[in-house]
Write a structure and sequence with these properties.
261 residues, AAA_dom, 7-stranded mixed β-sheet, alpha/beta, Rossmann fold, 7 strands, 43% helix
Length: 261
Amino acid sequence: MSTKVIALANQKGGVGKTTTAVSLSACLAKRKQNVLLIDLDPQANATSGVGIDKEEGASIYSALLGEADVRTLIKPTETKRLHLIPSELDLAGCEVAIARMDNYLHCLKNALQPIVDQNEYDYILFDCPPSIGILFMNALYAADSIIIPMQAEYLALEGLSVILSLIDQVRDAGNPKLRIEGIVMTMCDLRTNLAQQVVDEVQNHFGDVIYETLIPRSVRLSEAPSYGQPIIQYAPISKGSMAYMKLAKEFLKRQQSAPSA
C-alpha cells in the first residue's frame, strides 16, 4: 500500500482536533501501522501531547523553505511505530517567508515528496493550525484526504460549511484528488438532547462520511496532554482510549474498502 497523507483540519479551535490527531496516530501505531505525525500548529500541542519538548529550529519550517531534508527533522516518540515532526512557536513566522516563494501552496507537498515516494510510512497525518492561513492551505494541497473533527454543538455546523467550501476550492485550484476521509464527532455527551440532535443532523447530511465511532467527553482525554502521553498510554482502559481504538479500527476498515488511487 502506498503512503496515505491525511490532514486533520477544522478552522474552528477547541473541537478536539489535536486530541484526535495524537490519539488516532498512537492507536494506528498500536495496530502496527507506521505513522508520521506532523505538527503544523505553532502552539505545538501535538508535540507536547506525545511527550516531545519544544525545541528551537526543530519544526518543518526549514524543510518548507527548501533549506533542510525533511527526514532530518523526524523524531521517534515513546509509542513504537509513531514518529513526529514537532512544531514550535517560530513556525508562526514561516507563513510570511513561504508567501514570498514561487508555488508557495505546494511547499509542504514538495518537502514530503521523498518520504511519500519511498513509502516510508503507512500514514502521514497533519495536525493543522486552527485558522485558515498558508500552513493550513499547504496541508490541504499536500493531502490525499481530510478528517474533520467536529464538536457536537450547533455552531460547529456553521464551521463545517466553511471547510467544505474550502475543500471544493482546493480541488478546483490544484489538488483534484482531495476528498473527505471522514467526520469525527468529538466531545459527545449523548445524555443531552442537543448533542444527539447535532449527531443526527450531521448523519442526515453526510451519511457514511461520518464515523460511527463517537468520541465522548472525558476527563482522562483532557488530562493526557499534560502528562505528555497519548490516551492509550495514559489511561488505556478509559472511555476515551477505547473510543479512539475503535475509531482507528473503523478508519483502517474504511482504508481496506476504499478504491485504490
